[in-house]
Amino acid sequence: MSHTQTWTRGLLGGLCGAVLLGILSLSGCGHGANGTVAEYYGHYHPANWINDHQAAAASSTATCRTCHEISLLKAGSGIPNCLTSACHHGSTPGWANADLHGARAKWGVGTPGGSFAACQICHAKDFSGGASAQSCASCHGVPAPHPAKPWRASAGSLHTHTTTDPSNAAVCAQCHYPGSPVNPIGHPANPAPAGTTPGCFNNTMCHGNVGAPHALGPIWTDPTSNAFHGLQAKQDLNYCQGCHGTPGTPKFDGGSASTACSSCHTAAGAHSTTWYQAPVATFPGYVQSHRNAGNFTACNDCHDGLVKGRTAPLPAAPSCFSASYANSEHAAVGCHANGPGAAPHPIPFIGVDHTTVTQAQFDGNCAACHAVSGTSPISAAPACSVCHQAASPLAAGSGPGTCLSCHSGPSGLPAGPTGTAFPSLAGAHAKHMGLLTQLSCNTCHNGIGSGSLTHYNAANARVSQPTAPAPVAFGTTFNAQSGAAAFAAGTLTCSNVSCHGGKTTPNWQTGTLSGTNAATCTSCHQVRTGSTTSPQYNDATGRHSNPGEHNTACSTCHNMALTTAGARNHFKYLDTQAVSGAVTGTPADQFPSDTIAFDPAVVTGARTYTVTASTQGKGGCALTCHGQDHSTSGNTWN
């Protein structure tokens, strides 16, 4: 005979006795207002009814209502109700506190005043309110006697189902049955054999018969599986610690479970040693990264996290706010050096990690916060296109070192800007970048190019729209003999530049310098004489200054109209301070023979100019010029 049958018969028997007693004493169901709870225990209920009535009342309170009110006293009857002192929670102060009613609800069925079944007596079988008119959902947010998901925190927390007595499984099964939409992926989808009583670990609800609240075996350790343990562990490491460690400590050394997290994660204790990479949105979705963790407070179990500067529970654990951190698996990477919620890198970020970043590095690190264009994953993180307005800094031909992601130019070539608007004004960039001397952006923008604070501030469109002209600075290599090279922003001209003979250059945007006449040559060169007060590295010296001898047209010996090597080599040594080549190799390849190109209309016959290491700058000619035969013997230039 079931407890319900025993209790019902006993109660009906008691009721019959009560009717007879009422006829004799003209009293109600009980002994009147002077009756006590203890008297009702013995007079009108079977033995052990306090334990047995919970399950019966959970199914129906109709029998109880024959004499009792669920929450209100029948006026003047003196008959106890469910909330009478020493019964249910009506007389318990602070019952809304989860520490009280939540812990009581988790008690096992049959425990006086405890279990989910006891909640159903007043709050209805589906917890919609019932006789109490108090729905569980009004506080919990879900129509259940527990908080909303995830209701699976570590065992040290009250907000977890892991400490609920398994005898409550029958009530849990109302919602968490096989195939239920509120059951997580991987939990039983098919009911257990007919007649099987709902249980936590027998395939009738969430967990299988393995005794663990998750899958076991290869699927649990396979990172390509959608049931990989890393995917779930990242949602809340404290949940794992409930079984696989010691809650409230930095330990993941095994607790009630037979496996310790630290047995595999030997270096970090509960996660991969490399733990900083950017997450992905594609299957299998697992990347060794804390960035998409579900509970960052779990980091505080070991690290100095969330509160900058505190002493970490695990002193050996790196601080979340380190400027950089390296281990045996990876080189130093930036952490949250600027504090909680700030960028994990310096601002302004002018280091090589920014200026030389590759696509792979961007995808693995930067992309967690920044987008190349459009809207960044983190709103406060600017997209690359805010500053790199011409092209992606990661695209071929416009990547690190080429400057073309802002200063548009020929694809793949560092030829400088070719546009008509700042910061891509063409100017004389193409002319200079096409010279035999291999110049670069840094030639004229020395130390203030990509990676410098000056460039960062000038190009930072987040602060203000950049304005022309761009900052200019020369290295000492291009200083003229007369002084340091300089740029005048107002006139867009340079002065004291060695390759221009120290003279003021034409306007960078509108000026020209072309031709083979004397005026063109003397715009950069001068014939040095005894009266020259400002000598330059590229002065015409030696017999150039002999009156009436060699002060003829420059093109006689330096005919730049010719397509000879000499003509092409005119601008070969601009990156040497003396604007000349040193004799270190084959003499025929050295200045000044490189720039000798005789005009055949003036210089006839065999035409050669020789120079050796011992006669640098004093070479001799073998030619016929103006009808005169010259030999190299005793006819050196100087």
UniProtKB/TrEMBL annotation:
The record's section on SUPFAM superfamilies has:
Multiheme cytochromes
Taxonomically, which superkingdom? Bacteria
Which InterPro entries does the annotation name?
C4xCH_C2xCH_motif_GEOSU (IPR010176), Cyt_c-like_dom (IPR009056), Multihaem_cyt_sf (IPR036280)
Q: Cite the entry's keywords alphabetically.
A: Heme, Iron, Metal-binding
User: Is Transport there in the keyword field?
Assistant: no
Q: Which intervals hold domain Cytochrome c?
A: 478-603
- Name used for this protein in its record: Cytochrome c
